[in-house]
């Protein structure tokens, strides 16, 4: 069998070529990737690459949220459906772009090196095949002379550099999304990144807190190489926190706020705002509020109201330290000391000074009322005035620190548990037998026994300090965040002992919470922010009470204690009835059947 190379010529002439008509070039045009849109190739490539990565990023974020929230992946929203359609379109385009190029290169190599096989039927098969394409193709196959096509002027091809750049993007991670910046802002950002302009000075230099936060956020992203896309910047009044709440802001964190209630306390109803990310917490506290409401409500008693600060001073001998202790504790000197203390504020009123000696070091625990403010700054100023006075009377006194941890602030301490700090409150309620059974789904005797073995004995076995409760800190933290309190003071404010006792011949349940150090205020700090101020207004304790200074803060403390009472009642009932895991699986965890997962593994 004879094998020979056959040149392939895609050009052909028309039927009227012999008549002198101009020859027409027929070239089979293969589909191109750029045919997808009437745009230059580099723009089309860039558009589809951008769509591909954007949609992939959106879907990955959505799938991650579904996994965290235990939402089945097959549940698709309209936005996700549109994203999937866009993803499929971009994938088809990209596959076509690379696939067509590969096929065209392969065909071109094959055409340049095609072979014919001559045998008895080879020529006839070629003729039949070419006859399907038209007479010109058959003429070419049979060796007919085909005149060359007319010469055309073809514009030079411009290299598609942007397309090449688009291809290189596949090797890079998704870029940080940067907002459109003015030239002035860009210069300031570069100055911050290079360390020429301190980040903390942007507000004072620019005079625009929002702009300063935006520039700081962008500079932080460039310095760290980490994206802050999920941290919102817009929609917050940064002027309101300047110099009092937060320094060098770059955004704000969103925490959902739920409502528990109505809480019937001292004959009044309250809708309690709770800011939390823990599922089941608001629902559980709400159930406790319902049980208290249908049982006639709860009552509260304020035992003490006094913020504390305890400086530490040192002398050369323990004798000199003891002499100052006796002077401070002498009732005859209290008038002059209170005069020095009270001049710091029209609301600050010195209540007493408790001293403790450690060698030649003296700790003086000042206690005072602070009106509707939480009062840490107020009491500190009053203490400083007293120290200045004592320094003149005891020149050998060395002030080591205005806070010596005998206060004690933001730390669990026995002195707060015993002596109290802030507002000391007791809250109680009697829950009827039918309410315990129908609403709380348990029995009075079971609750009493569980409280004794868990909250009392169990906490004692653990060496707890003020932690003789089920989860008081859960409710305290949620209410504190919603109302603008200092969240760090949840440490001592959550000191609580929960007591349960069967009453009325064992039919009903008496429950109480005793909280000796609830530290709250309705003015100052975070209470003046818009969201927190709205929550305080919901409770009817927004701002200072002009008629009775301090009454708003005291009322807020009793509401915190009442909310803790509701939370303790509901959680203890859930544990007693064996519903704790089930409720958390429903509201706070995956809906998967753990037993099936264990069996399958």
TrEMBL record:
| Metabolic or biological pathway | Metabolic intermediate biosynthesis; (R)-mevalonate biosynthesis; (R)-mevalonate from acetyl-CoA: step 3/3
User: Where in this protein does the record put region Disordered?
Assistant: 1-29
Q: Which family does it belong to?
A: Belongs to the HMG-CoA reductase family.
The enzyme class is oxidoreductase
Q: Which organism is it from?
A: Solanum pennellii
Which SUPFAM superfamilies is this protein grouped with? NAD-binding domain of HMG-CoA reductase (SSF55035), Substrate-binding domain of HMG-CoA reductase (SSF56542)
What EC number(s) are associated with this protein in UniProt? 1.1.1.34
- Ranges in a coiled coil: none
What membrane topology was assigned to this protein in its record? Multi-pass membrane protein
Residue ranges of the TM segments: 39-60, 81-103
Cellular location(s): Endoplasmic reticulum membrane
Which CDD domains is this protein grouped with? HMG-CoA_reductase_classI (cd00643)
Supply the name of the protein. Answer: 3-hydroxy-3-methylglutaryl coenzyme A reductase
**Pfam families in the record:** HMG-CoA_red (PF00368)
């Amino acid at each position: 069998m004879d094998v020979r190379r056959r040149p392939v010529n895609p050009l052909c002439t028309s039927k009227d070529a012999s008549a002198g008509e101009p020859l027409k070039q027929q070239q089979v045009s293969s589909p191109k990737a750029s045919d997808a849109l009437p745009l230059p190739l580099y723009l089309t490539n860039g558009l589809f690459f951008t769509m591909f990565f954007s949609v992939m990023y959106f879907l990955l974020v959505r799938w991650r949220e579904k996994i965290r929230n235990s939402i089945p992946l097959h549940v698709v929203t309209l936005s996700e459906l549109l994203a999937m359609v866009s993803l499929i379109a971009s994938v088809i385009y990209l596959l076509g772009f690379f696939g067509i190029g590969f096929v065209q290169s392969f065909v071109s190599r094959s055409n340049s090196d095609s072979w014919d096989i001559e045998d008895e039927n080879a020529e006839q098969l070629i003729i039949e095949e070419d006859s399907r394409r038209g007479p010109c193709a058959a003429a070419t196959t049979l060796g007919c002379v085909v005149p060359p096509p007319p010469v055309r002027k073809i514009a030079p091809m411009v290299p598609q550099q942007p397309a090449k750049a688009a291809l290189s993007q596949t090797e890079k991670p998704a870029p940080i999304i940067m907002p459109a910046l003015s030239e002035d802002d860009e210069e300031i950002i570069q100055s911050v990144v290079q360390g020429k302009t301190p980040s903390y000075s942007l507000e004072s230099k620019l005079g625009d807190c929002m702009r300063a936060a935006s520039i700081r956020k962008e500079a932080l992203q460039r310095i760290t190489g980490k994206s802050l896309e999920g941290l919102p910047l817009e929609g917050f009044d940064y002027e309101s926190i300047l110099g009092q709440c937060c320094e060098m802001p770059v955004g704000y964190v969103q925490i959902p706020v739920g409502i528990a209630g109505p809480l019937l306390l001292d004959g009044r109803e309250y809708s309690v705002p709770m800011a939390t990310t823990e599922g089941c917490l608001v629902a559980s506290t709400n159930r406790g509020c319902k049980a208290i409401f249908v049982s006639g409500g709860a009552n509260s008693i304020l035992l003490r109201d006094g913020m504390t600060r305890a400086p530490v001073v040192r002398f050369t001998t323990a004798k000199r330290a003891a002499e100052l202790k006796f002077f401070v504790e002498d009732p005859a000197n209290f008038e002059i000391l209170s005069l020095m203390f009270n001049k710091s504020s029209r609301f600050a009123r010195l209540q007493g000074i408790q001293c403790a000696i450690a060698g030649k070091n003296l700790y003086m625990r000042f206690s005072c009322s602070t009106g509707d403010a939480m009062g840490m700054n107020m009491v500190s100023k009053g203490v400083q005035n007293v120290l200045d006075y004592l320094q003149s009377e005891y020149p050998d006194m060395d002030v080591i620190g205005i806070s010596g941890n005998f206060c004690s602030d933001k730390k669990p301490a026995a002195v707060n548990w015993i002596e109290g700090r802030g507002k000391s409150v007791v809250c109680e309620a009697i829950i009827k037998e039918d309410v315990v059974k129908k609403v709380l789904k348990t029995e009075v005797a079971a609750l009493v026994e569980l409280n004794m073995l868990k909250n009392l004995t169990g906490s004692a076995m653990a060496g707890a300090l003020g932690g003789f409760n089920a989860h008081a800190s859960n409710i305290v933290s949620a209410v504190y965040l919603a109302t603008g309190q200092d969240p760090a003071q949840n440490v001592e404010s959550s000191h609580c002992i929960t007591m349960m006792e069967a009453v009325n011949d064992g039919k009903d349940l008496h429950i109480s919470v005793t909280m000796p150090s609830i530290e709250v205020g309705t003015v100052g700090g975070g209470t003046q922010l818009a969201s927190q101020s709205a929550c305080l207004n919901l409770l009817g304790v927004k701002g200072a009470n002009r008629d009775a200074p301090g009454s708003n803060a005291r009322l807020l403390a009793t509401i915190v204690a009442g909310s803790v009472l509701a939370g303790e009642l509901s959680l203890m009932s859930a544990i007693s009835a064996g519903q704790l895991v089930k409720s958390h699986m429903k509201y706070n965890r995956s809906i998967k059947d753990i037993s099936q997962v264990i069996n399958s593994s």
